[in-house]
Amino acid sequence: MELRTRTLSGTLGLLAHSEPGVLDAFAKLWGTDELLVSFDGMNFTLPQPERADVKPWPHIDQSPKRKGLVCAQGIINFAPNGPQDGGLVVVRGSHNLIAEYFKKHGMPPEPRTWGPEDYFSFIAEEVDWFKEAGCEVVKVCADPGDLIIWDSRTIHYNRLPESQQVRSIVCKIGPPPPPTRHILSRRLLTGWHTKDACYAPARFASEKDLKLKAQLFHERKPTTHWPNMNIFDGTSVDELRFGKPDACKRVRPVNDVVETDTVLRLAGVKSY
């Protein structure tokens, strides 16, 4: 369902992305408060006991071709998220072995990405290599108001809930955390559910990417996790829902964003 919720738009997106606690955390990681935010998605998962089983889809959101840590991803958690509530699963420590893995095994002959360069999926046998090297599969638990940040080279995926807990998050890609920290969980908000939140320094973005980013913001269109590079229109081309035109599809959100200076700078429309 394409509701234009994947841009920095709507009342909820504005409140979450402009939350001082979120901005401060990423500003400390980067050493600057001149940040851009990515136009990514929101996760709102309802309990559904008879839901069809979904297999894990382990992946990384930074191209193996990029050397070192280039960005990190973030989730603003709005609802209780326990061991059985679904949510983020990481292969802890895998970010430290990504370069070694691809040096040893190389790239597969067929690309494993749905489009953007900064994505690579793994099959179960490949994840076993990381587990045998000492990595641990961990379900990340969080409370309402927690911010979770992880290295984008970390193998991760989303697990569906097994409980009756509603899951709602906001997620984005942002700055790299210090090398001694893999996952940062910090109390930021109260109530609600979850949203992706990723920020990176504006100075790292090219003029071309800034121009496209501003255009997509004005059109209320999504991009990817990346806030400052690899910018492209991520709008779904599927106009059908269950074989019929999606009656909920709209061009702009019902509660549109108030374009403050802070919002326009985060969106790349105004310069710092």
From TrEMBL:
Cited InterPro entries: Phytyl_CoA_dOase-like
PANTHER family xref list: PHYTANOYL-COA DIOXYGENASE-RELATED, PHYTANOYL-COA DIOXYGENASE-RELATED-RELATED
Pfam families hit by this protein: PhyH (PF05721)
Organism (species): Exophiala oligosperma
SUPFAM superfamilies documented for this protein: Clavaminate synthase-like
Protein name (record): Uncharacterized protein
